[in-house]
Amino acid sequence: MTTTHALILIIVAALATFATRVTPFLFLSRHSAHPLILHMGRYLPAIVMTVLVAVSLSAMTLPVFEVSTDDLPTAWQHWLMSAKGAGMLISAICVAGLHLWRRNALLSIAVGTGIYMAWVQIGTPAVVG
């Protein structure tokens, strides 16, 4: 793929993304007081938060213990430091708690993502090393 093809691909993808974001505002601007739109605006953010937390927790792994008791601290350390272990659980709890407290979807997603990414960046090297 040449640079020109890559730029054309990026421009088309950006325009398609922008069009899908703008279209509802263009066609639904006259119906902004419709009861269905008001209902969706009230309940959809909480539903999206619930789905995001449920999906992230479904991908979480539980600690795996071997028969040996010498492996017990290692298994817990690996689970606590892994991205799909305690990092995911702590991030999900923070997202749910922050959203219940502040009712701000953007803030909840940003903080949850930040905590998860920090956990991944800080925790993963400790497990590998």
TrEMBL record:
Q: Kindly list the residue ranges recorded as spanning the membrane.
A: 6-28, 40-59, 79-98, 105-122
Could you tell me the keywords of this UniProt record? Membrane, Transmembrane, Transmembrane helix
Task: Please name one Pfam family that this protein belongs to.
Answer: AzlD
List, alphabetically, the InterPro entries matched. Answer: Brnchd-chn_aa_trnsp_AzlD (IPR008407)
State the name under which the record lists this protein. Branched-chain amino acid transporter
